[in-house]
Amino acid sequence: MAKIVMGIGSSHSPTLLMKPSAWLARAATDDQNFFVLHDKTGARVTYAELLEQADPAILEEITRDKLEQRHAQNQAAVARLAAILKEVDPDIVVIIGDDHKEVFHDDNMPALSVYWGETIPYRPKGIMKWKYDPDLDQELWYPQEEKDYPVASVQAERLIRGMMNDGFDIAQSKYFKDDQAMSHSFGYVYHKLMTDKVFPAIPVSINTYYPPNNVSPLRAYQIGESIRRQVESWDEDLRVVVMSTGGLSHFVVDEAFDRDFLQKLAIGGVRPHADLPLKKLQSGNSEFRCWSALAGAVDGMNMDLIDYIPCYRSPAGTGCAMAFATWS
């Protein structure tokens, strides 16, 4: 019988692929990002409003030494997850992520979709084609070459059929159109976590960002429960890792909210996800839902928090909080 042998949760921010000098370059444009800035109540705010209510102590969080320290922590945590994945050596990795209109657009934005082609293509486009900038010392976003990655197609189709029987109306893709590109949620995994060996994957995409059909945290948790139920129904002797990428709080760092959520993840159960306030899950915070889906798949397993790193980049408290954890 197939078995989920590990869960892996990871942030997937561009911050993980940049040096701190590039963080500060991004901070310089935060006052133009009205559409993504929400305060800690979830209310939409301007950068000036955010700056006015910010704790002056945040200035201590964006010193050169602090930024370098957190950059080193990020890289160490990513390397640790890559090493763990290599050591576990699963037969299949189910990857749960969200899409930022890289694959799906307003003409068709499914709440839940599973890809089940023989391979999934990486086709660099848009932000995925950033070049190295010597002035910012900015790293590449993802590899520049086009590449196809293996999919556990037989099991992916089986997962679709089984989750349909569980009551989920699943969109499915067997190939992408020429103008579509693999979501950054999955590209991050191949670029930073599957560094020594590429494992056959089942890409599961949930809509976290875009109303009106973005899934609730409770529904995301139930999606994870269904994934686990279906995996455990397979007759093959398969070792499966379920992984989610995204979050935590951004584009305004909210340490209290993040730490409370992580503590509740360690305890387990459905209640923390049913109780998550939707008003706070705006913009980048919407990706908490990816962790909720993972939580449903690994409930009952023991969580190990590898690191939590609040990566501030401006006096207003903008930035992205990183989290890295495993369940076994």
Describe the protein.
By secondary structure, this protein is an alpha/beta fold. The chain has one domain: LigB-like (Protocatechuate 4,5-dioxygenase, Chain B, 3-Layer(aba) Sandwich). It is built from nine helices and eleven strands. The strands form two sheets. Strands 1, 2, 3, 6, 7, 8, 9, 10 and 11 form a nine-stranded mixed β-sheet that branches. A two-stranded antiparallel ribbon has the order 4-5. The chain is globular, with a radius of gyration of 19 Å.
Relevant CATH superfamily: LigB-like
Q: Overall 3D geometry?
A: globular
* Strands, count: 11
Uncertain runs are 126-132
Instruction: Give the helices and strands as they follow along the chain.
Output: EHHHEEEEHEHEHEEHHHEE
With helices defined by DSSP (H or I, 4 residues minimum), what is the helix count? 9
The structural domain count equals: 1
Strand content: 15-25%
Mean pLDDT: 92
Tell me the radius of gyration. Answer: 19 Å
Helix content: 25-40%
Q: Say what the CATH topology is.
A: Protocatechuate 4,5-dioxygenase, Chain B
The CATH first-level class comes to Alpha Beta
The CATH architecture would be 3-Layer(aba) Sandwich
- Helical/strand content category: alpha/beta
Furnish the topology, listing elements before pairings.
Blueprint: E1 3-10, H1 20-27, H2 47-53, H3 64-88, E2 92-97, E3 112-115, E4 119-122, E5 147-150, H4 153-165, E6 171-173, H5 184-193, E7 201-206, H6 217-231, E8 239-245, E9 250-252, H7 255-267, H8 271-274, H9 288-298, E10 303-312, E11 318-327
Parallel strand pairs: 1-8, 2-7, 2-8, 3-6
Antiparallel strand pairs: 1-11, 3-7, 4-5, 9-11, 10-11
